[in-house]
Write a structure and sequence with these properties.
Rossmann fold; 7 domains; seven-stranded parallel β-sheet; 28 strands; nucleic acid binding
Amino acid sequence: MNLDDFDRQLLAEVEQASSPTVAALQSRKRYLQGNGSEEQIKRRKTQAQARDQVPAPSFNLRHAPPMARGIQLVCTSQMPDRVSAIFPYEILNAVQSKCFPVAFESNDNLVVSAPTGSGKTVVMELAICRLVMETRNADFKVIYQAPTKSLCSERYHDWSKKFKLLGLDVAELTGDTSNDHLRQVQQARIIITTPEKWDSITRKWRDNRRLLDMIKLFLVDEVHILKDSRGATLEAVVSRMKSIGTQVRFIALSATVPNSEDIAAWLGKSPEQSTQPARIEVFDESFRPVRLEKHVYGFQYGNNDFSLDNHLRKQVPDMIIKHSKKKATMVFCMTRKSALQTAQTLAEAWRNSERHQLPWPAPRQIIVVGDTVLRDTVQAGVAFHHGGLSVEDRHAVEQGFLQGFITVICSTSTLAVGVNLPCYLVVLQGTTTWATNAMQSYSDLEVMQMLGRAGRPQFEQSACAVILTREQHVSRYQKMVSGQELLESTLHLNLVEHLNAEIGLGTIRSMALAQKWLASTFLRVRVMRNPGHYQLEETNSHVGTDEMLQQWCEKDIQALLHANMVEDSGRLKCTELGDAMAKYYVNFDTMKIFTAIPPKAKLREILSALTRAAEFSEMRLRSGEKSYYKELNKKSEIMFPVNVDIALPEHKVSIILQAELGGASQPDGENFRKHHQQHSTERLVIFSHANRLIRCIIDCQIYMKDSVSVRNALELGRCIAAKVWDSTPRQLKQVPEIGDVLCRKLASQGINSIEKLLAKEAYQIEMAVGKTQPFGTRLLAKLQSYPRLRVSIKEMGREIKRGHGATLRLRVDVGFLNTKTPTYFHKTPVYVCFVVEDSNGNLLDFRRFSAGKLESEPILLSAVAEQPLTHVGCSVMCDEIVGTAMHAELKVSGIPDAVFPAGIKSRPGPRDVDHPAIQKASQVATAFDDDDIEDADLLAATEPQ
């Protein structure tokens, strides 16, 4: 076969291909390499033509790109050399080529709806390349938004290498972000983030318009998550970016959905033509690189998900025999235990099969693993995979599957992301999973990610996916996998929280602007198309769609005004309470609980308000848990036992929190051990919310100027951060190398605080805990960075005006006793809180600063006293580090009662806390800013160098 014959054959193959890829060109290159250079081949061909005198037609791919499904494929050489270099192939596939004119040759917004694996990501890369060519060296930023951290991480690693060729730095902003991490954004042109993270960051940008002006391209991956619970945040963020009025271009990628035109209507064609829909390209399942055969089977069995799971497990062997063709298979199970049990079931079914009728081949090699159960199942070519396995066993299973030594993997849904293990058959053994504290259905995104594991384009052209679910859910999943499930908005479900955030940002300044903002949302598009889906009980079902939206706005804004989250003085704006609600992502119902905390609240009352937060409403007692938590509630380490029948989520949350802070051991015994794992899982969830919620409580109490509540909330906040009670010897656990055992030994020797530990010599510490040298020396060395604060207060003068009270001029000296400023303690950044109060419990001053910014100069302040008082107190403490608080007190006398406004009498000093071991030094600390990122740092970090 000569080169012309090859080109003809290649064109024929490409024309027939459902999704042309670089594989054809790679085959052509292999042909050239095996037969000499192209010049040599042409020379031989010319000689043959001369001998035969029969001219043969020739074709050069460079001059006539092939067609696929009626789409002319685009060669990357059509782009300027500067940007074409990032594409490692010579030709774009059909999906990419069809989108090329809009993505690379225009600035219009674009919506692409195409199957998984069809190459949609390249469309976003084309848009970035256009921006690079247009802006040259101008300042710009690109935002890429994906729904999961794993997708963001995958994109970050890919684009960091790819766009380095264009001199573009890429930064990832997901989950925990420190100041150090945020500074990477300073050089980054491309920022990769999640909707929640971008929402959190942009909520800080109230007055920093130039930051938003730098954003020129906004890329939304997996935009079909709009219909999931998290979709409201995505919708709010995109609508925010639209309503700001900046010149932002939007590219949105979606799986196959029937109403992608609604997304296009929402985004608009461009900022100048927002009433016209965005450009849209829709590709059906035939463009999937590997044809995916999908089956949904319904079963009606049992009253709960666990009994159904047991029933479905028995169906899996037959499903594999029916659909796998004895090829690589992945079974997704709802829990770790379920994955293990399914692997055992399949291994047993394989062993019971006749040798000539094995459902999959016998393993060519037995992999080496440590887990005893896994060691048994791999003998049958079956493995299970989840986070409970050792890293070594997980790696062995992954490699064994890739090498063909394992044919079937049973896993939890986490394996659907992060690890590239494609297979022929995917089986979903049920459509629910255990998430944090309850069974819940997989999100659509999770389902599609799991199904996306089916298909190995390097091995075959087809794959199969099987979903096993309850009978009543069959129709829904059939619509989902066939791309026929309509996208609906979820913004209306928590509209009040998003309205509050937009008012705080200044996006909404009036009722009219609120309606305008709502009109820019996907919710409005869908309400117009499908109003019946959004009817709420509070609205008049006979009104039109725009009137209904107006009613929603008015109702929610009135609720915010009534709750003092928002004020209207000719312009809507957030109060400090509304700012706290937006800043800490707090549910509106939770804010109403927090603002109802009684004056001078005790620690117990602060804890009670925290545990009643709506964010914990799903922490319900499950079957058999009541006796477990009753037993745990009896432990002496529970500082505030629940004194009523344990029945509500708040009771459970309170006991779990206190058990951790007090170091209470979990109840033992056969009936209790089965709850240990769930207790541990829910503890993580509770603490992830508690740190954020207690910060909100602190901000609310600062606004109320209630110093007693502030100090008690600070104390609880710091205890939650350190995960120990401040007033107990467990504060020693903050020290590296001191665990529960050493903590008890030290306490038995009278060393029950870090201050007392610091006062000991190394040999005394070693004697107390039964250790040898140099343990004590090493421990004391680590304690050199433990913050040791000092504080003093002095009156410098006073101004007295009859009927108006007294103004005290105060000097406060704050500093560290450490020889070197402790900016970090055991990897924890040191922040200092500064609280000044009078004897009546009125907050006079509050400040927070990093250890490095704690100046050696004194703090000068004026404190206005409008009531008779006996003293002024000043407390300083470190965030998240217990045992650091110090207190100073200034006695105040000589101010006649007649100086103060009439009718105000002196009140006795409040009780500080309501638990034993009250120390003179009020011990409080917490953190306030989201991610500890100051607005000034955020501003600097997002500006180019």
